[in-house]
Design brief:
The chain has a domain at 1-184: Lipocalin (Beta Barrel), CATH 2.40.128. The longest helix is centred in the first third of the chain and has 13 residues, at 6-18. By secondary structure, the protein is mainly beta. The protein has helices spanning 6-18, 37-43, 370-376, 380-383, and strands at residues 47-51, 56-59, 71-72, 87-91, 95-96, 102-111, 118-125, 132-137, 140-146, 152-158, 165-171, 176-183, 186-190, 196-201, 205-210, 216-219, 231-232, 238-246, 249-256, 262-268, 271-276, 282-288, 299-305, 311-324, 330-337, 347-354, 361-366, 396-404, 407-414, 420-432. A seven-stranded antiparallel beta sheet has the order 21-22-23-24-25-26-27, with no helix packed on it.
Length: 435
Amino acid sequence: MTRWPAHRLIAAGLAAALSTSACLPGSVDLPLPSLDVERITDQNGLIAFRGDDGNIYIVNPLDTSAEARPIQVTDDAQSVSEDETAPYHIYGMPSWSPDGEYLAFAAISGTGQGFPIDNQVLLVDRDGKPVRSVYDDTHIPVYYNWSPDSAQIGVLTQSATNQVFALRRVGVDGTGGEAIDVGNPLFWAWAPDSGSLLVHASHTRLAALSLDAVVQERDLGLPLGFFATPAISPDGRHALAAVATGPSTQELARIDLSTGAAQSLSAVTNQAAFTWSPDGARAALVDLGLDNKYGFPAGPLTVLATADGTVETTVDEDVIAFFWAPNSKRLAYLALVDPKDGASTPNITLKLLDVGGWTPREVLVVSPTGTYLTQVVPYFDQYNQSTTPWSPDSSSFVLTYQESQNSAGVYLINLDGAGGARRVGSGAVAFWSSR
């Protein structure tokens, strides 16, 4: 069974972040310019992105006026330098709270090319209130994931001295921050009621954590296959995980969270990456192998009914990521394609599947940004639980891609009619708010 070293990818992503232009506010008391909250909320959400300069930006995707421009949340980028005494400041990925009221992003700082010495997770209020810190510690935040009720954030941190990862829970008021689980690697999913988590740690343990005053763990006791992020159904009753059926065989299983009983849905050969549709009726699964010309995790995409595993469609392409639309009626996916200029780095094609019709429709072919391809795509199943590229009304998609060697664009892609793609900013990675 081919194993893709997820823990090495996290470390590589951190190293890549340290080598790019980035920034951190010198003070966490930076006001966000006032927004017309009602007008924006009533339309179609907001897009947040990390710009080419490393700063965090917010844009109203439906503001097409001549004066329209992204709102700059931070403005003091500072690049990593070979000068051992020069400070650097780096922002992480922006992540909207499920209620659309907050934007979270990491901020780390240090000197030269050394490990960060100051590490924070910051929040921006949607309505323009000041930035504030909800996590401040010596451990490096490498990923963060909102609880469904928007009251808590799960923060994955890495020690500066070793490869140990810890899951920490912080409140939007800055309370908490203690480690509630450890592993290498470590992935998790929030339960819909925000009162528990399903943790997959060190490739060997799948456990439910009850987030009471004292955190309690219940190991599901299953022999695990090779996957990264578990997924909990929208009703909170079941989970998806890869379960080992032999020394070199595994299957995607639907697990009853009350009993731990596992029902087979589909055989999987390599690394399984999967998510439920928002309505819980279907699951999408990609079998990620390395047997393609680019040696990048990719494989066929399968959509199946979660009730019994009935296969509804299979896409036999080198799929690297997929994303359910909020209305569960569409599934967007990215696949590797050869670049026309013969370059060694692949292009990606964005394609769309309509539920029921299942005929792939190509939307566009682009050159991906390095940040998106190496830091987001390998963890798309985890990012699917904390971010979305879809507009709240399921009509549009946000994607970043390389325009030239020194420029990357943030594009709003209208998937209805002939709207095409519209540039809304400059940046390497972008996500839409769910409201």
